[in-house]
Amino acid sequence: MSNQVSVVPNTGISVTAQTIQFIKHLFPVPRSFSIRLWDGSCLSADGQNTFELILNSPYALRRIFRPPLEGSAGIAFVRGDFDIEGDIFQSFRLLDTLGQISLGRIPGLLGEWLRLPTEPVTAHLSRVEAHLDGAHHSKARDMAAIQYHYDVGNDFYALFLDKRMIYSCAYFPNGDESLDEAQEKKLDLICRKLRLRAGEHLLDIGCGWGGLVLYAAEHYGVSALGVTLSQRQYELAQQRIQSAGLADRVKVELRDYRDIASGSFDKISSIGMFEHVGRSQMPKYFSNIYRLLKPGGLFLNHGISAHPVIERYGNLLQRLLVQRGSFTMKYIFPDSELMPVSEVNWMAERAGFEIRDVENLREHYALTLRQWVTRLQTHRDEAVKIANERLYRTWRLYMAGAVFGFETGGININQTLIAKPDHGKVSLPPSRADLYVS
Q: Which of 57, 100, 165, 412 could form a disulfide with 209 if both were Cys (CB 3.0 to 4.6 A apart)?
């Protein structure tokens, strides 16, 4: 092993032997995955092998398990210290394994980990950690946070999204839809839940690349305004509006929704946006939307919500060791915050709204993300050429991790239909059965 240690200092034990000992104690049999070390040594799976954990360096485990574990493991993966071959989604079940480690085992594991070789980190992530200035959720800081995530490049996102480039949960009513079909069905479900009618004025907050406003104008005859904080999304949305010949009825603006000072909208949608708002700003979020919505109007709030059970991942010490969400906050969605849907909807009611319908679509988001990850992996070479290897690995990791969250119920995705009653009246039919008539 050139430029790599072969013996653990002051012990005479080979690094390979020390590493294997640590792995066996951390992940005892039965083990449903195999492990391959940098020198070709292997630990087989017990029974069917769901994936293979590949350690590319004798320093990999020391880096992976440096607290907080989520951030360290994420950085180590992006750096290429280790790889996952096979079912990357199954690999996230190791988080549950780590969460079940008893307090009594931690000192012994810590001692073994400290005996693993360490090397000064000289290489840096090309995806620089987000460093945002200014007050939390100020307009300038929110724009910087959004552009950090979304402005990595339209060509990059086009590699794994559907043809309309919808970057939110698709809808799979039959379970066998293609991604294009499922995203179109999601757009149509939103329009039907909002009971859109020709001539109405729709506002879409956080409109992305303009998929919903274009669909609603084309299929439901509305006039639509979309707002986004992403420069790249805004530029492509403008091109798509012109190409569709809908410039007379559809506009997309590079604008903070809080800066919409005038206008009265029949319907408002917010799809995959309120996760960026923050708990402290949520009352203002709803009061702004209440102000912009006509009496009797409808608002569809669609976004990811947190599971309210805080003890899900073990005791306090274990939660401190793992610090779930730390990698995402630094390298994916800075300043984002997930809240239980019950808390979100309570804040909507406090603003004067009436909750009319709540639907949990978390299984649909797991299916969506699985397709995104598969498509990204298929286009790996193009992704690396457009961006770089580490950005590709970052997105592959975060989306695969999200699949685990949705499939296990750690996070949810909810569509909430909200009304602004007009003296107690809301223009809705007595049943929602019409929403599910194909």
A: 165
d(CA 204, CA 202): 7
CB contact at 8 A, 276 and 142: yes
* CA angle centred on 345, ends 341 and 349, rounded to 5°: 170
Q: pLDDT of 412-435, one tens digit each?
A: 999 999 999 999 999 899 998 888
CATH number, domain of 343, equals 3.40.50.150
Whole-angstrom distance, CA of residue 71 vs CA of residue 161? 26
Question: How many folded domains does the chain comprise?
Answer: 2
Q: Tokens 């590319």 identify what position?
A: 56
Q: Partners of 269 in the beta sheet?
A: 204, 300
The predicted-structure confidence for 373-427, as pLDDT tens digits, reads as follows 999 999 999 999 999 999 999 999 999 999 999 999 989 999 999 999 999 999 8
Q: Based on the domain organization, do 214 and 339 belong to the same domain?
A: yes
Token look-up 């149509």 returns: 188
Q: What is the DSSP letter of 168?
A: S
Could you tell me which residues come within 8 angstroms of residue 382 by beta carbon, excluding any fewer than 6 positions away? 159
**Do 220 and 350 have their domain in common?**
yes
Query: Which residues lie closer than 8 Å to 207 by C-beta, 6 or more apart?
Result: 213, 226, 227, 228, 233, 237, 252
Do residues 102 and 178 share a domain?
no
Residue 275 lies in a domain: yes
CA 139 to chain centre: 22
Dist. CA 353–CA 341, nearest whole Å: 15
